[in-house]
Design a protein that fits this description.
The chain has 331 residues and is α/β, with parallel strands linked by helices. It is built from eleven helices and twelve strands.
Length: 331
């Protein structure tokens, strides 16, 4: 990976607002290997997925407009929206042994100022994939309402089962990902936006103007991207093995205990539902202060009720096992 950054082309200044052609072709090949046909011309590089959100909020929304985001989800959207003077409204994911979108609540959350619906696939931290029938219903709804779909797929390669095939885009749809998760390389600072559906060519022309204003993606990492993506299967497989081993160990270890390990289909998190004899914050502070175990309380991710604790499945397995045993003893 270090050798890929030594290409002499990396020191040339050759600005390309959508990203260098070789880099966009590498991203198109990444999708092709996953059964999705995305033309390099429909791809635009960014410095990160967070920056991709910023570009898309600039593209789609005026100050005061609204973006719908899932709940529970990662606590980042509000910060990104605030920086673009955009409001966030939430739609719930419901759990009944598996997670699914509450479409009745989603539709009630739509207002005349709604500009986009964010879907994280699989969601963080619930680890739930968007189901094919949900994808179809979402595309129809967004197309009828003239709303864009922002599909965050940074955890797409980390499933505990195969993800279902999603409906083809009808509404204006943007897919986002990057090296941070799929190659375990957050320090390389390269992500992308792929576009499809109604009006995507005009949207890409406007996105190109935004990208040309910032020109944020460094040339060395663009030049190195084909090699980095080719090498990324190694880190991905290491991450998959660790998360699957940790998930399986926690499932076996909790048998007979007083809490539930919620079903997840992918991602990097495990969710424990613990007795409501204490609040989540009290559970988390007790685990940290008395047992040296770090977990995240569910309210960090906007869980609607208590009490949930979120555990990182990236933790080294021997450390996770020891920490989990301490949690069991504490509870």
């Amino acid at each position: 990976m270090l050798a890929a950054l030594a290409d002499p082309q990396g020191i040339r200044y050759d600005p390309a607002p959508r990203g260098h052609a070789s880099a966009r072709e590498a991203v198109a090949n990444y999708y092709w290997q996953r059964g999705r046909d995305v033309a390099p011309s429909n791809i635009l590089l960014t410095a990160s997925t967070s920056e991709a959100y910023g570009y898309l909020f600039k593209l789609l929304a005026d100050p005061g407009d609204e973006i719908l985001t899932p709940r529970p989800s990662y606590p980042l959207f509000e910060f990104l929206a605030d920086l673009e003077s955009v409001r966030v409204r939430q739609y719930p994911l419901r759990y009944d042994g598996g997670w699914h979108i509450d479409f009745d609540e989603l539709e009630r959350a739509i207002t005349p100022r709604t500009r986009a619906i964010v879907v994280v696939n699989p969601n963080n931290p619930t680890g739930s994939f968007l189901k094919p029938e949900e994808s179809e219903r979402l595309q129809v709804l967004a197309s009828e309402r003239g709303i864009a779909i922002l599909m965050d797929e940074v955890f797409l390669d980390y499933g505990f089962r195969s993800a279902g095939k999603l409906a083809p885009p009808r509404a204006l749809t943007f897919w986002m990902s990057g090296l941070s998760k799929i190659a375990g390389l957050p320090q390389m600072k390269l992500g992308w936006i792929a576009a499809g559906g109604e009006g995507h060519k005009a949207a890409l022309e406007r996105l190109e103007l935004i990208a040309d204003t910032f020109l944020s993606v460094a040339t060395p990492v663009q030049v190195a991207l084909p090699a980095l993506l080719a090498l990324s299967e190694g880190p991905r497989e290491q991450i998959r093995q660790r998360t699957q081993i940790n998930r399986a160990w926690m499932t076996a270890a909790r048998a007979g205990s007083e809490f539930q390990l919620l079903n997840t289909e992918g991602g990097w998190s495990g969710i424990l539902q613990v007795p409501r004899i204490r609040g989540e914050e009290e559970w988390a502070l007790m685990a940290l202060g008395l047992h040296d175990v770090l977990v995240q309380p569910g309210f960090f991710f906007d869980f609607e009720s208590e009490a949930f604790l979120v555990i990182s499945l990236l933790t080294r397995s021997d450390v996770l096992e020891e920490g989990f045993k301490r949690l069991l003893a504490m509870i």
